[in-house]
Amino acid sequence: MNKRILALTQSLFLAAFFALPSLAAEDEALKKDLTAVIALQGLPCGEVVSVKTQAENDHAVLCKDGNKYRVYLNAAGRVVVEKRK
Amino acid sequence: MMSAPQICIIAAAIFGLNACAGRGHHAPSPPPATNASRTPQPDVTSPPSATSRPAPIPVPKPSVTTRAPQAVNKTAPPVAKTPAPIAQAPKPTAPPSAAVTLDLNGLKTQLKETKAIGLFTKIALKNQVDDLLDQFRKYYQGKSKTNMMELRQSYNLLLLKVLSLLQNKDDKLASAIVSSREAIWDLLSDPRKFANLQI
C-alpha cells in the first residue's frame, strides 16, 4: 500500500515537474501574442509583463510601461483592445 | 654647310609637322564615327573604327556594347549614351511580369499555419485586412472619400506590420509576401480584378 502511494506521489511530482515549463512557455507565448496585438492597434505598451485570463479569449494585461489593457475577442470576431485605468 | 644644332632644329621641325599631319589624318575619322552612331546599330560602324585603330577590329564584332565605349572615347558620347537606356528600359519591365506568380491562397494558408504569429495577432491581422478590403470596396462604389494614394499607404502599412511580425521568425513566408507585394497591389488597385477577388 505504501509502495503504491509512493509511486503515485512520484508520478504526480514528475508530471508537475514536466508540465510547469510547458505552462511557462505557453504563458510567454501568450504575452508575446498580446504584445503584438496591442502594437498592431498602435497602442503604447512596450512589452506585456503579466496576463490575467478573465475568460476564454479575454485577458487583462499589464504592460512594462505601466499601461493596462483588456484584450478580448468580441462576438463579431474582432480583437478588441480596451485601455483600463 | 649647316651646323649640328641647325640640323637638329630642322629635324625637330619636320617631326613636329609630321605629328601635326598625323593628327590631321585622324581628325577626319571622327565624322564617320558620328555618322555611324546616328545609324541604329549596323555593321557600318565597325569599318570606320577599324580604319582609325587597327587593334580594336575584332572587338566591335562580338557585341553592340563594345561599340559604345569607343564612341564615348571619341566625339559622340551623348548619342552613344542614349541608345543604352532604351535598350535597358525593356529589361526591368520584363522580370516583374514574369515573376508575377501570385498564389494568394497559398499565402493565406501559410499565414494561417505559421507559428511566428500568435492566434490573437492572426485574428487582429485578419480584422485589419478585412477593414482594408472594405475601404477598397467603398472606394470602388464611390462611397468613400479616400483616394488611391491613401489606400496604397494603408496597404503598405499593413504589409509592414505583417512583415515585422514575421521578421526573423518565418523568413520564407516573409520573402514570399515581399515578392508578391506588387502582384497583390495589382489585384487590389484594379476594380475588375478586385471584383473577382475571393478572399
How does this model look, in words?
The complex is a heterodimer of chains A (85) and B (199). Chain A is of the alpha+beta class and 85 residues long. Chain A has one domain (2-84). Chain A has one helix at 2-40, and strands at residues 48-55, 58-63, 68-73, 79-84. The model of chain A has no long low-confidence stretch (mean pLDDT 89). With 199 residues, chain B is mostly helical. Chain B has 2 domains: 4-88, no CATH class; 98-196, no CATH class. In chain B, 72% of the residues lie in helices and 0% in strands. Chain B has 13 helices and no strands. In chain B, helix 9 (119-141) runs antiparallel to helix 10 (148-166) and helix 10 runs antiparallel to helix 11 (171-179). The longest helix of chain B is centred in the N-terminal third of the chain and has 23 residues, at 4-26. Chain B starts with a helix and ends with a helix. The chains are: A alpha+beta (85), B mainly alpha (199). The interface between A and B is medium-sized, with 15 and 12 residues.
Number of domains of chain B: 2
Helix content of chain B: over 70%
H/E element order of chain A: HEEEE
Q: Which percent range fits the helix content of chain A?
A: 40-55%
Biggest interface, CB < 8 A: A-B, 15 and 12 residues
Work out the helix count of chain A: 1
Instruction: State Rg of chain A.
Output: 18 Å
What's the shape of chain A?
A: elongated
Low-pLDDT segments of chain A: none
Largest sheet features of chain B: none
Element-level helix/strand string of chain B? HHHHHHHHHHHHH
Overall pLDDT level of chain A = 89
